[in-house]
Amino acid sequence: MSTVKKTKKAKKEKDPNEQHRAIKYRLEPTPKQKEFFEKTFGCCRFIYNCLLADKIAYYQENGKMLNNTPAQYKIKFPFLCEVDSLALTNSQLDLQIAFANFFNNHSFGFPHFKSKKHSRKSYTTNLVNGNIQLYNDGIKLPKIGKVKGIIHRQPDQDWQLKSVTISFETDCNYYVSLLFEYIKKVDDILLTEEATEENTIGFDYKSSGLYMDSNGKSCDMPKYYKQSEKHLAELQRKLKNKLLNSKNYIKHQNKIRKLHKHIANQRKDFLHKESFEIANRWNNVCIESLHMRAMSNKGFGNGKSTLDNGFGMFVNFLEYKLFIRGKELVKVDKYYASSQLCNHCGYKNPLLKDLRIRSWTCPVCGFYHDRDINAAINILQEGLHILSKRRKEKLKAKEEAKQLNKK
Q1: Strand-pair partners of 167
Q2: Which of 138, 159, 194, 214 could make an S-S bridge to 376, C-beta 3.0–4.6 Å?
Q3: Which one of 84, 213, 308, 372 is the catalytic residue?
Q4: CA-CA-CA-CA torsion for 353, 356, 362, 366, nearest 10 degrees?
Q5: Residue 80's closest CA among 49, 103, 56?
Q6: Domains in the chain, ordered, with CATH?
Q7: pTM higher than the cut 0.85
C-alpha cells in the first residue's frame, strides 16, 4: 500500500490593507426578544464561569491546563441548548484570550469570575450561512429572528459582515454592534505629498477647553458633567432615602444611570464632530502622548476637569478617522518639553514647570509667549520633523519594492 503524506494547508496571508469597522444601532426588541437576550447573557456568563472553575480545579489536581468546551456542559445543563451556540463558543474564546493575556503579560491579572450584578451584559455571535441580515428597519439575528431597531446608516457595499455583539447598557436600552471587514484603498497622493505648516496642525492639551491649536484657536469644549452635577447630586440624595432593592429604589437608580449615559453621549457626540472636522480639514495632526489617568490624580488638583474633557477618547477618534482617510496622527513623546521651549530661539525656561505661569517673555529673544499656544507650536514643529523622517522611510521602502518587482 502506498502511503500519502498529509501536508498542512498554508495559512492565507493577511492583506495589509484589510481593515475592520463597526457600526452600532439601538434595538427596540419585544418583551419575548428581551427575555431571550437576558437568557443568552446569563448562559454566556454561566458557561464562562463553569469553564474557568473547571480549569482551576483541574490544574490544582493535575498541574495541567484542561481543554474543555461548552458542548460538554449541554447534557448536564439542557437550558444551554436554548440559546445561540456561537454565543457560548465566543465566551470560551474570551476566556482563552484572558488566559493568553495573563501568561504573556501579568499586568492583565488572572481571569476572574463574571458577576451577575457588575459584569457587562453582552454576547457575540458570528455570520454563518446568512443567519444575520441587516434591513432598513431592523436586523435578523440567530434563534430570535428579526429585531426592530433604529438603522441610522447603511454599510458600504464592499464591506463584509463578520460578527455582531448584542449588549444591554446603563441607559436600559439594547444595542447591536456590527463588525465589518473591508480592503482599504491606498492613497499614493498623500504618500508623496510633503507635510508642511499649511496642511499640518499641532494640538496642546488644555484642561479648560480640551485643546489649544498651533494657530491660537481654543476648542472651548462645554463641561457636560459640571452642567449636570447639581441634578445628579439631587438624584443621588433621593436614592439614599429609599429602601434598598425596592421597586422605587431600582426605578430611581435607573434615572441616575440614564443621566450618566446622557452626559457620556453629549461628550461623545461633541468629540466625534470635532474630530470629524479636523480629520477632513488637515492632512496631518501632531499631538502630545499623555497619560490621562495619571494626570487625573489628586496631585494635580484638576482630576474632574481632566476626566470631563475626554481627551484620550478624542485622540482615539482622531486617530482612526485620520487613518480611514489615509492621513497621519503623530504622537510626540510626553517627555518632550513643549511648554518650556521658546518656539523662536529654542531657549528652555525651567521656570515653566510651574503650571500657574500662563505666559512668559523669552529672556534671549524677548518674544512674548502664551503658554498653551507656544506648546502647540513646539508640538507642531517636532511633529513635522517626525513626519519628514517617516516620509523618507516610506518612499525608500516603495522604491525597494519596485526594484524587487522588476527583478
Answers
A1: 122, 175
A2: 214
A3: 372
A4: 180
A5: 49
A6: 18-183 (no CATH), 188-223+266-406 (3.30.420)
A7: no
CA-nearest of 297, 326, 318 to 202 is: 318
Contacts 24+ apart (CB under 8 A), 219-225: 219/274, 221/270, 221/274, 221/309, 222/266, 222/270, 223/305, 223/308, 224/263, 224/266, 224/267, 224/270, 224/308, 225/263, 225/267, 225/304, 225/307, 225/308
Catalytic residue among 84, 204, 213, 328: 204
Active site residue 372: yes
213 is catalytic: no
The pLDDT tens digits of the residues spanning 281-302 come to 999 999 988 888 777 776 666 7
Q: Could you report the per-residue pLDDT of 160-205, keeping only the tens digit for each? A: 999 999 999 988 899 999 999 988 765 544 555 788 888 899 999 9
Has 193 been annotated as catalytic?
no
Q: Of 288, 308, 328, 382, which residue is the catalytic one?
A: 288
